[in-house]
Amino acid sequence: MNQQPSHRRAPGAGLELVDAAFDAQQKGDFAGAERLYRALLETGDHLGVVHNNLANLLRKSARLAEAVEHYRSALEVLPDAAQIRSNLADTLEGLQRYDEAETEYRRALELQPDNPEVRYNYGLMLLATGRYVQGWTYYEARSQVFHEHGALPFPQWSGEDLHGKTLLLLPEQGYGDTIQFVRYASLLKARGLTKLSVACKPALAPLLRTVQGIDALITDPQALQVHDYWDSLLSLPGRFGTTLESIPASIPYVGVFTNRLEAWRARLPDDGIRVGLVWKGNPEHENDAERSLRHFSELLPLWSVPGVRFISLQVGGAEAEARACAAQQPTVCLGDEIRDFGDTAAIVGQLNLVICVDTAVAHLAGALGVACWVMLPHRGVDWRWHHTGVQSPWYPKDMYLFRQRDATQRWKGVIGNVRDALAAILHDRC
Hints:
Layout: H1 15-26, H2 30-43, H3 47-60, H4 64-77, H5 82-94, H6 98-111, H7 116-128, H8 132-139, H9 142-146, E1 166-170, H10 175-181, H11 185-189, E2 195-199, H12 205-208, E3 216-218, E4 229-232, H13 236-239, H14 258-265, E5 273-278, H15 288-291, E6 308-312, H16 319-324, E7 332-333, H17 341-348, E8 353-357, H18 360-368, E9 372-376, E10 399-403, H19 412-429
Helix pairs in contact: 1-2, 2-3, 3-4, 4-5, 5-6, 5-7, 6-7, 7-8, 10-18, 14-17, 17-18
């Protein structure tokens, strides 16, 4: 998460220029904002604020090394600004300078131990490096950052005895988060709960009905009832003291109803290797520009591998890109007909492989135990995929991670590696 400190106003000459630069930055006029910030640096006015705001702009423009220098200059003027140190730490992390990043996070926490954004960002780094025991504690600060859950008239569960009790689990963030952490439902039920309820969006309900341990699904917020306790799905790893070695990995932990399988079977090709594709994630995600492909056509090298039938699982308007490329990239387009994750699961469950960017379908394939290759960006990789490695501890069966090594080439190298891996599999099958 890349949090930026709010614009700090300071009296005196040059304030109007500071405001103008900040406004230009907020409107997306980065070139104009940069010119104004650099002009201000020449005047010597408000140097701490200007260096900080310019660093924020540079970081957003992926000019991380330059951003680091301006954050350091800002800290020479404002050494006690915990948020600037946190932003510096996040930028250093993006440059893979992890030891320096941790030093800055710790300094920020010394200045403001209870700053939720700093605690949350530090928690993400700890989780991304596999230090789960420490990381879960700091990760809890997200509730103060995002405020996803309002006040409920019954207490949050914090590890109390659950025998004979009722518990409501609430979702957070995206669909993939729910799919990843719903694996804890059976562990909770085993603690003696009389009723385990899970709130979810309607699109997930058909999938979650297959999860062992869930007694009730609530898709209408108005239908929420009082339970003995509530908790967030994303807090469960911390409640269970999850380490890399103790991740619940009984896979598959979601299933598919027979009628759904039969409904989709006739739509799938009956020859070749069936490979599902998802090339774009949620456009509202803060890192979508990095983690999604710009266009379906970027996947063209995959069509050089013979014997593969590609199936689009892409929902939302992006599947039109595949149809526009049908001459060179023939694809069975199913995304526009998918109603919910029950349908997606029924299709994925009948595939040989899923190739996707970091989106909910990766978690779905992993939870089903279907082979999945996840293409990850150079910047802003989510903590659950860690900083390094080609496999995920959350989905140890047949999930492989293909990482961008060079931000300048974006997806070219990754897609080339995926093509080679796909060709190798086909060669071995012959």
